[in-house]
Amino acid sequence: MPEYRHILSLSGGKDSTALALYMRDKVPEMEYVFCDTGKELPETYEYLSRVEAFLGKKITVLNDRAGFDHWLKVFDGYLPAPNMRWCTKLLKLKPFEYFVGDTPVISYIGLRADEDRTGLISGKPNLKTVFPFKEDGINYENVLRILEDSGIGLPPYWNWGRTNSGCYFCFFQKSYEWVRLLEVHPDLFDEAQKYEKFSDIPGKSFLWNQEMSLAELRKPNNVQAIKNRFFARQATMKKNRKNKRLIEIFTDYEFDENEPQACLICQL
Ligand code: SF4
User: Fold this and answer.
1) What pTM did the predictor assign?
2) Is 5-160 CATH 3.30.565.10?
3) Is 87 near ligand 1, meaning CB less than 6 Å away?
4) N or C: more exposed end of the chain, with fewer CB within 10 A?
5) What is the domain partition of the chain in residue ranges?
6) Which atom of ligand 1 is found nearest the CA of 267?
7) Edge-to-edge strand order for the sheet containing 105-108?
8) Which residues pair with 127 in a beta bridge?
9) What is the per-residue pLDDT across 80-139, written as a single tens digit (0 to 9) for each?
């Protein structure tokens, strides 16, 4: 039998955090890591230090030394997008694989029993990937309960309407989340906006949000329209739901779990 290292990669999101709490006493030799793109939300760092205190173990921060801005130049200004996730490969997966090395490793992923998601995960031959939540039938409500019972709770960015961890400019954000970023972290919104480029040459304009540029989105009439649309949808979802779910009790928001999502390493 090979000797395995046990590694759990935290994203700063609810599922990988719940998994870390769930596995803490089951695998005491677990190594915890966080792949830091250098463009994460400040709340993510705050949350991870809370998690670290609870685990009683250091979370090793991994990063690609070159960083996002270097790779953006290499990609000739092409911002990453759902169909071209160079950011995930270079800033999340590569540092993780470097840390994993070539000895046998079991990698723990927080994919829940009630979801069927795919995404970039490492295919290194020495890496055996396991899904304890899937194996143990842990679903969305169970994850919320694990977080609540531990006292850790949901990541703090949930308080202002963002539901996924990852970079502040992540292109998986919905328009309403961009609006909230503008309101809560105007400096980060400005930074994100600086990355957008416009060109008359087809295929040479690079925007984060496919609906409209951030320069457009921040205009008061667009902010209001996006909010109105969001709250109208919330009202419909609330009306159509028979029972209040745990997530609504904790956050007072309705969440659609079928929306497009980023890779497992970024957002679980
Ligand atoms: S969070 Fe989004 S922008 Fe950041 S690395 Fe992941 S997919 Fe890319």
Assistant:
1) 0.89
2) no
3) yes
4) N
5) 5-160, 175-251
6) 1
7) 59-62, 31-35, 5-10, 105-108, 127-130
8) 105
9) 988 888 999 999 999 999 999 999 999 999 999 988 776 556 778 899 999 999 999 999
